[in-house]
């Protein structure tokens, strides 16, 4: 399990209850277990503290895998059907797996071949 950054506020608890997600992740730095000091390139920094951002919690599963918990829609708290967040401090050619673990729909268009929209400095077009 990753250590939480000393500078980032708590985005939720680690009890597995995604209903306890209170606010958006704000410059949340994921550091490896036992690591002390400033984040190095490759230590991901998650942020959703902007209009339409809805990432509520990040759990570090393994070196390259993260479980992401999406906050519910403001006008309809039963549903979690979209996501919007940023990730910074990525190493060139770094590959990671993001698991959106609390989508409210059991079926989605991702199962039919659609993919999330992604933009990066190495791939500036959506």
TrEMBL record:
Classification via Gene3D superfamilies: 2.60.40.3120
Cofactor(s) required for function per UniProt: Zn(2+)
Molecular function as annotated in GO: carboxypeptidase activity; metallopeptidase activity
Annotated Cytosolic carboxypeptidase N-terminal domain residues: 47-126
Keywords: Carboxypeptidase, Hydrolase, Metalloprotease, Protease
Pfam families registered for this protein in UniProt: Pepdidase_M14_N
Protein name as catalogued: Cytosolic carboxypeptidase 6-like isoform X1
Organism: Sapajus apella (Brown-capped capuchin)
Gene name of the encoded protein: LOC116564083
